[in-house]
């Protein structure tokens, strides 16, 4: 569309360097979405020959070309200047995936001077970067180096106490150690500076070298945070010289790494600089445009949701994460802890606790390919299989898909493990239990680790179910109060009472492609006994493309929205300070408080009109090529196993059962069960799901299987359209029916959240009974007893 008039309300730009796209979201002063742009790496930059924005090789290596980012930034800025009035953009925020940029050492006293007549990529020499293809967050090739560093520091407990985190493959310290020990010496010797991807993006926008934020420094494994009492003054944190020496191999190289890293910006609640002259002259930005500190994509997405104390942000993706507000700095091996990236120096220090799992999209995609034909069939199986994969109380099924090196306590465990009646088996007797058991294992892991995290006191003492506007049924009383709960926990061999949900999250805020599956959203609500909310932008995007982590065309990425919100907050503080002499004037408070105030003000002024979720987005339909169908993994090609497991007759039997509310035949599951045995009524799900709707009606127009929902088998013959084994008849796949919004209170609706699943105390109690056995089996894996 043509640029608008050169005068008008202020706009705020958020940038997001994701794995597969470079995205931009523009909001106005009331945080209403007014513009969305993106550059898709695979389709718009085909010369780099990436798949999902990355290169994958056999093993654990996942890399991406830095030159591609530079060229994508040129393309994105060109789109922004062509389609929007950039003179109205008053502030720019942003974020990036976790990756490292290795600059060459010749010579870089300051950021390179740029000619506004030429794009970025034509002015950076081909030898600008000493490591042209850099590892990204999914890369686990440095896992053994992370474990070695942890051992040298005395183990996970001592390492966490020292640098705030224990071993994981994404640590910058582990990546540096791997490059020094495993790569050719010229990569190390030619390096003159290293930047995290977020610093790199900010430097390109500002035209000068940008310091790392403390939230990201705490994730490097080399930064010492001072903890409680910090007020944002300089010198409160430091690089650990001992760790730097270990990584560098000697003291001299450790000092060299220190110069590569530069200083750390402690206070994130202020502007970093103004936009570069190059961008003003080439694209038309105003010279007084503020640029805010950039941060990690997962922290920026967290900011966009404005979570309250007691909320849990559960993000499904290549790595699953659970983030929650924390009041204290109490580092342990159980979780990662970051200073809040949006806080003033005068504020009481706030933190964000994070639990992670690397075994996320990769196992989900592999199970889909092995046991079903599509995400639609995957979702239906999860919905109809009973909790624990069995109707019995003492014969539950458990599975652990640990395909990549993970963090504590599973840092030394790899493989696929299945258990029936507590005994390790190579495969379940009924293969159809695999999808549900995988998802249960992934969500139960977060539930178990949440309870252990609560016990440390890091989240504070006011985390309970009586907060906010979320009505909750009180915990069932016990005869002797807390002592009784302790006795229950001890009798079960646990450190917490699995039946007590008073300390569990009040709300679950979900993002990521897997959350679009109604069965997954319901499962999260059941395990935590909490209502599940999803950003309305994702709910609407899922109606167009339900199976991709990337948003549909015209819909904003949550991390880019977080950057735009942060830019709006900083601009308001700067303007208030200039007018009244204090950034605390004019009602401005902390980040979440101010964002909620702006949302509430817009809600009242617009007569309770929901936030706009897209700009010129398609109404619906096929999601495109599906190159990034929920994951970017080396398991992209279908194995063909699904064709032999889930054949046409079985699928038709499931659909017939769903339409009629009748029973499944005894041949469907070992032993057979009816809908009454599932502990719920199949015909009454808590959200409209693909399991309760006849998805064949939407799939009838698809004809041949669409690559949007399945990935073709390169070895399949032309006569096998479903990608199955020759001689097996495979029906056409059907479209996944995603979650839809349920009635949502104004408190959530005005900040752009929609309820997608309700809490169910009966289902919670079913999972509470499973938790002790799950914990026992996980403990056996950690101790290498199986």
From TrEMBL:
Q: Spell out the Gene3D superfamilies in the cross-references.
A: 3.30.420.40
Q: Organism, per UniProt?
A: Rhizopogon vinicolor AM-OR11-026
Q: Return the InterPro entries for the record.
A: ATPase_NBD
Q: Which keywords are on file for this protein?
A: Kinase, Transferase
Q: Kindly indicate whether the keyword Kinase belongs to this entry.
A: yes
Q: Does the keyword Coiled coil apply?
A: no
Q: Provide one Gene Ontology biological process annotation.
A: xylulose metabolic process
Task: Enumerate the residue ranges of region (Disordered).
Answer: 465-487, 611-640, 691-724
Q: Which family does it belong to?
A: Belongs to the FGGY kinase family.
Query: What name does this protein carry?
Result: Actin-like ATPase domain-containing protein
> Residue span of the signal peptide, if any?
none
Q: State the source organism's domain of life.
A: Eukaryota
Annotated GO MF terms: D-xylulokinase activity
Name any GO cellular component annotation: cytosol
């Amino acid at each position: 569309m043509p640029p608008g008039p050169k005068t008008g309300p202020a706009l705020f730009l958020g940038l997001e360097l994701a794995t597969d796209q470079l995205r931009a979201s523009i909001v106005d002063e009331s945080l209403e979405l007014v513009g969305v742009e993106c550059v898709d790496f695979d389709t718009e930059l085909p010369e780099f020959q990436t798949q999902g924005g990355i290169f994958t090789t056999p093993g654990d290596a996942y890399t991406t070309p830095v030159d591609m980012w530079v060229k994508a930034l040129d393309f994105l800025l060109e789109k922004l200047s062509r389609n929007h009035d950039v003179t109205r953009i008053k502030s720019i925020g942003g974020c990036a995936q976790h990756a490292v940029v290795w600059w060459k050492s010749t010579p870089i006293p300051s950021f390179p001077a740029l000619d506004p007549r030429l794009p970025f990529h034509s002015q950076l020499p081909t030898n600008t970067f000493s490591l042209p293809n850099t590892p990204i967050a999914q890369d686990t090739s440095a896992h053994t180096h992370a474990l070695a560093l942890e051992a040298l520091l005395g183990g996970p407990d001592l390492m966490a106490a020292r640098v705030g985190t224990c071993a994981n493959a994404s640590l910058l310290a582990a990546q540096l150690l791997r490059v020094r020990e495993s790569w050719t010496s010229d990569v190390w010797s030619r390096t003159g500076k290293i930047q995290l991807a977020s610093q790199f993006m900010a430097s390109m926008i500002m035209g000068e070298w940008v310091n790392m934020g403390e939230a990201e420094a705490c994730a490097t494994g080399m930064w010492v945070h001072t903890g409680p009492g910090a007020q944002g003054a300089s010198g409160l944190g430091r690089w650990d010289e001992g760790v730097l020496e270990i990584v560098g191999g000697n003291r001299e190289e450790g000092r060299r790494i220190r110069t590569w890293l530069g200083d750390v910006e402690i206070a994130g609640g202020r502007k970093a600089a103004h936009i570069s002259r190059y961008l003003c002259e080439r694209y038309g930005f105003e010279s007084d445009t503020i640029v805010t500190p950039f941060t990690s994509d997962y922290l920026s997405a967290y900011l966009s949701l404005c979570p309250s104390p007691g909320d849990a942000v559960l993000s499904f993706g290549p790595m699953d994460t659970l983030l929650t507000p924390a009041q204290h700095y109490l580092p342990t091996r159980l979780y990662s802890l970051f200073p809040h990236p949006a806080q003033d120096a005068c504020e009481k220090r706030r933190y964000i606790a994070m639990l992670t799992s690397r075994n996320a999209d990769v196992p989900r995609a592999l199970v889909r390919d092995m046991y079903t034909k599509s995400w639609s069939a995957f979702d239906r199986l999860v919905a109809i299989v009973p909790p624990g994969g069995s109707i019995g109380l003492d014969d539950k099924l458990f599975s652990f898909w640990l395909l990549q090196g993970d963090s504590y306590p599973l840092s030394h465990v790899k493989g696929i493990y299945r258990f029936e009646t507590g005994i390790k088996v190579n495969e379940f007797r009924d293969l159809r239990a695999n999808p549900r058991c995988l998802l249960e294992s992934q969500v139960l892991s977060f539930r178990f680790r949440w309870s252990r995290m609560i016990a440390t006191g890091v989240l504070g003492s006011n985390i309970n179910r009586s907060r906010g506007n979320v009505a909750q049924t009180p915990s069932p009383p016990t005869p002797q109060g807390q002592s009784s709960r302790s006795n229950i926990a001890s009798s079960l061999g646990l450190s917490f009472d699995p039946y007590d949900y008073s300390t569990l999250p009040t709300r679950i805020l979900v993002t990521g492609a897997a959350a679009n599956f109604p069965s997954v959203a319901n499962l999260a609500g059941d395990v935590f006994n909490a209502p599940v909310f999803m950003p309305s932008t994702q709910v609407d995007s899922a109606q167009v493309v339900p199976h991709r982590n990337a948003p549909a065309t015209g819909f904003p990425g949550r991390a880019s929205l977080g950057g735009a919100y942060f830019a709006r907050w900083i601009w308001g503080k700067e303007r208030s300070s200039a007018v009244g002499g204090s950034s605390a004037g004019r009602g401005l408070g902390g980040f979440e408080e101010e964002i909620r105030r702006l949302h509430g003000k817009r809600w009242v002024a617009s007569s309770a009109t929901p936030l706009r979720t897209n700009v010129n987005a398609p109404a619906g339909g096929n999601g495109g090529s599906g190159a990034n169908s929920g994951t970017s993994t080396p398991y992209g090609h279908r194995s063909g196993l699904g064709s032999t497991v889930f054949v046409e007759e079985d699928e038709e039997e499931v659909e017939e059962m769903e339409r009629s509310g009748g029973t499944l035949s005894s041949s469907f599951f070992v032993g057979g069960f009816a809908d009454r045995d599932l502990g719920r009524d199949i015909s009454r799900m808590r959200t409209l799901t693909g399991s309760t709707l006849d998805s064949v009606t939407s799939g009838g127009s698809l004809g041949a299987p669409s690559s949007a929902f399945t990935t073709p088998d390169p070895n399949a013959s032309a006569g096998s359209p479903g990608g199955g084994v020759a001689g097996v008849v495979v029906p056409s796949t059907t479209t996944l029916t995603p979650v839809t919004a349920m009635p949502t209170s104004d408190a959530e609706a005005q900040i752009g959240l929609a309820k997608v699943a309700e809490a169910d105390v009966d289902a919670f109690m079913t999972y509470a009974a499973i938790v002790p056995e799950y914990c026992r089996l996980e403990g056996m894996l950690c101790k290498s007893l199986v």
